[in-house]
Amino acid sequence: MAANTVRGITEQEWGRLVACAKGKTEPDLVVQGGTVLNVYSGELMEANLWVVGNRIAYLGPRVYEGTQAQVIDATGKVVTPGYIEPHAHPFQLYNPMRYAETILARGTTLSVNDNLMLVLGMEFGQVGRFFEQMAQLPIKMMWSLRLDPQAHLPEKKHKFDHLPVSRLLKSPYVWQVGEVTDWKSWIDGDEAMRDNALSARAIHKRVEGHAAGVSWETLNVLVAAGITADHEAINAEEALRRLRLGVWTTLRHSSLRPDFPAILPELIPQVKNWSRVMMTTDGPTPEYLQNGYTDFLIRHAIELGMDPITAYQLVTINPATYYGVDGEIGGLAPGRIADILLLSNLLEPTPELVIAEGRIVAKDGELVEQLKGPTWADVGMPPVHKMDVPVDPAWFDVYTEADTFPVMRLANPAITRHVEMPVEKDASGRVVGLVENSEDLCYVSLLQRGGAWVCNGFIQNFSTQLAGLASSYTGAREHLVIGRDKTAMAAALERVQEIGGGIVIVDEQHNVLYELPLVIGGAMGDQTVEELVQSSKELVRVLKALGHPHYDPVYTLLFLSSAHLPEVRLSSVGLFEMKTKRVLHPSRSLR
Ligand SMILES: Nc1ncnc2[nH]cnc12
């Protein structure tokens, strides 16, 4: 039966490793004179590390006196294992390659990644090949397979059927299924979800939950159904609830949910056993990465009162143990993969030097050489195609037979509230005057990329002055269009299509106020993370000037068509109420 492995070992590699451990053969690399953070015993120890190939052969007092190995003088430095991100979404405008190079330079040497954008954008066979190509990098990119599309898209549900998912589950690079956002369907007996989760368990892979806001009673049901970890606790009580029910508890501090200050000061005095706690950045938008990645989590947790050694354990040995690979990674000991960091001191988690697989890969935050990964042209996520007809502003008109309409009110970057508003209509049933006579309403539409259907509605509290915004970056992988001026909305969408996908904002005269090409499937950019940091700051600035009242708008664009968040979402079948799974207003065919 399969279980997770990081790299596997050949007979020849084993022979070299054991010979070097015995002191009979030379190591390839030595880290000498440093203070090693021993995450197993929770102590700092003066010790040297000998590395052969991509593994550690020896930890201890033995001093290297040979001439062949590369010797790294770690005198005065703290030596730690590479960091592990157990729950990543490597596609928040950046693509998985750009993500990998950025976080590796900051000391994260293993990331377990969501496959959602890939599975929605590619054929299954291509997804498996992409995993194989990413596995050639010195940073280990492992994967978590979704059981549901996280959006109400009946036409895409087949991508989550038992046959394709169970095939992909056999990949050695897949370590988990989840996060199970549509957990309600799962516990209510959705067959594909049930079979896929059971198949994962049968081969010792994990099942990650997404139990936002659930009660003790519901959490019991989810644990009985098989969830093994969850990262949705937003306060100490919710974190303790998970620990007490035997769920690995992943503490989150992301761009959208910067929760450490709300969790840690209260949680720290109460936890007696940290061995089943992990930490995650949970897919931050580019700006966050300016402050670091897992290194930032460690620093922040220590600032908020966590014992420093515990903070390191939460991002090294704990996630390695959770995924069942602690014999291979997550600590500095013989036989482990040589992912080693040199820090100036324990309170400075951003590494001066990063060693991955036994080779120096980064110094002072910069990669020593460019990573070689798959080319996007080969991966099968081409730029957005132009529709074969021009975008018609009338597509954004809302028609109803009722006297009221379910408006989405944006309560914060992620959550919408259902506000039923009275509407006036013309003889054809078209809603008139609602946006024009309001200060803070916009039209909002999810439009199928080929122009086959449109889901129309109104959104409140998004902007007071936005003429037109269009984005091919959405949870549904269709086009999102928002604005107070339908011709400007159409112009923004035309421009998105001209640039191969991305995010565009235009004014009433259709001048482009903001433009970000996202040419990888219309969902991810090929720009560097630094370029995306500047561009996403500009997006925030432009939207703010147009009266957008929230932070992290990139997440708003992503999540307006995701069905895992309260209350109303855009979907292929219409405006959809997450809790009741009701269609509040149907979508309209344009063919
Ligand atoms: N559920 C989710 N799906 C996609 N990206 C995310 N980032 C954080 N949570 C996410």
UniProtKB/TrEMBL annotation:
Keywords: Hydrolase. InterPro entries: Adenine_deam_C, Amidohydro-rel, Metal-dep_hydrolase_composite, Metal_Hydrolase. Residues 415-581 form the Adenine deaminase C-terminal domain. It comes from the Bacteria. One of its GO terms (molecular function) is adenine deaminase activity. It catalyses: adenine + H2O + H(+) = hypoxanthine + NH4(+). It is an enzyme of class 3 (hydrolase). Residues 78-361 form the Amidohydrolase-related domain. Its EC number is 3.5.4.2. The keyword Transcription regulation does not apply. SUPFAM superfamilies: Composite domain of metallo-dependent hydrolases, Metallo-dependent hydrolases. PANTHER family: ADENINE DEAMINASE YERA-RELATED, N-ACETYLGLUCOSAMINE-6-PHOSPHATE DEACETYLASE. Belongs to the metallo-dependent hydrolases superfamily. Adenine deaminase family. This is adenine deaminase.
